[in-house]
Queue: 3 jobs
Job 1
Amino acid sequence: MGEFRTRDRQAITSCRTAGYDPCDHFAGIRKKVDLGSGAKREIVDIALSRYACYLIAQNGDPSKDQIAFAQTYFAVQTRKQEIIEKAAYGG
């Protein structure tokens, strides 16, 4: 958990440095989760925007499957958008 928090802080710093309000991209939420006994417990979590997910992926360890997948996903989506814009604007 501590490792995620470090990445999260790095992503929040990147967001702020880029001129965006981190509160718009990293929203603290509370939600109920099921326990094995059938009971529910409220936990604190963070809802991430797409931009926040991108920042976390960029600050993550690419040797981890989920981070590598996210980095690849964002790279592919960026390339697709570049191709679309090139076709639309005749570049």
Job 2
Amino acid sequence: MSSKLLGDDLDKLWPLIVEGQSDTACFDNALELLVAGGYSLAHAMMLLIPEAWAGNPLMDEPRRAFYEYHAALMEPWDGPPLSRSPTAGKSAPRSIATVCVRRVI
């Protein structure tokens, strides 16, 4: 990674995800990094928690292309079960961390 804004100070951020943290903490770190890096919250969530897109005949082609492209860049979240939040549930059909639900709402 590189940053014009942070320059050499970027090295002070490592490690971004500390070994031994809970799955929820790791997810939170990854989400925070993506949003701080310029992704919208919705885009970051779609990267980390993609819909079940492979083999879904009901998904439109542009959305399928989005997920197919990003599948090569990031492995999806596979953490604690989805909260009953209607907001997170609509955008994240896979499991999601409670901390993320709190941030979305």
Job 3
Amino acid sequence: MTNEEMQRAMDFIIETEGKSSAKIDALADAQTRNTEGITALLAIAEIHEKEIQANTQQILAQSQQILAQSQQIATLGETTKHTDERLNALINVVELQISNGRNGKQ
């Protein structure tokens, strides 16, 4: 191999090495950006997880409140039923008094 051929071969190797080095640098930069992106996505996922947990706790608390209110409504329904029965008994007594012509007098 002549000196000129050797010089061309070395120039080729140096040029190829330079291109390879540039590509490696570009890939390293891309990997850094990807790593930063993944880190940001993980942070967002953690935030979403915390929000989901908070929402789950709120839903649970509201479900318990609804259950308590349903029980109160049922109790109120029973109380109203008893009040209606007592009111009907009073109405019956008053109607009986009126129908007997007493108008509430003995």
